[in-house]
Amino acid sequence: MRRRILEAATAEFANHGFGGARIDRIAKVAGANKRMIYYHVGNKESLYLKVLEDTYDSIRAAERLLNLETLAPLQALIRLLEFTWHYYLDHPEFLALLSIENMHRARFLKKSRRVKELHSPFVALIRDILRRGEADGTLRPGIDPVQLYISIASLCWFYLSNNRTLSTIFGRDLLDPEAKKARLAHMTDMLEAALRPSQPALDRAPPKLLEFNR
Question: Which CATH code of 1.10.357.10, 1.10.287.70, 3.30.390.10, 1.20.1250.20 fits the domain covering 45-197?
Fold first, then answer.
């Protein structure tokens, strides 16, 4: 019953926001009544916060299954980008709930200790991947793990959450299968370019210039 309530609440809050969500509709979809919701989860605010926490818990749990720590550093971060892209595509409710909570200036999320606890080990994992990459020379030094993850999430999130306006502006269907494929390839190229160590200036110089300098 608790699971049915949370599933119904996730859809309700994602579709209508916190202010527009109705406990009566959640109860009807879950096959429950308002008293059962209050018993299993709590009031509307408690239910909304629980939905947010479960939403973050789900994506962090899915990321753990990637076993990024077993992959080569650059491969691990590209895999994280690919996962994030496909997870956002498959879970539009995640993007909707994030947008809604940002509109509330994280008013409810600030009350959650659980969400912070979920992210600490995830940041530590990315930091470890970056350190391994620095050590073996495949990644440039000095990359902040939090900034890196925000960049990965942003590359995926902005494209998908704004696809309707962007598709209208540029006159193309950004959710066409080929467009989504091209987007992932573009993001991968950008990520690799940002992560790889810079080449020495001489290595980038044209062959004739190299001969002249000798």
Answer: 1.10.357.10
Count Cβ atoms below 10 Å from residue 106 Cβ, excluding itself.
14
Q: What is the pLDDT of residues 23-60, one digit of tens each?
A: 999 999 999 999 999 988 999 999 999 999 999 999 99
- Tell me what pLDDT residue 211 has: 47
pLDDT band per the 50, 70, 90 thresholds, residue 198? confident
Total-model pTM: 0.88
State the Cα–Cα distance between residues 59 and 159, nearest whole angstrom.
19
The helix (H) or strand (E) run that includes residue 98 is helix 92-103
For the chain, the residue count is: 214
User: SS3 of 58, please?
Assistant: helix
Cα separation, 126 vs 105, whole angstroms? 26
Q: Are 166 and 159 in contact (CB under 8 A)?
A: yes
Q: What's the CATH architecture for 1-42? A: Orthogonal Bundle (1.10)
Other beta carbons less than 10 A from residue 10's beta carbon? 24
Here the tokens at position 2 are 């608790």
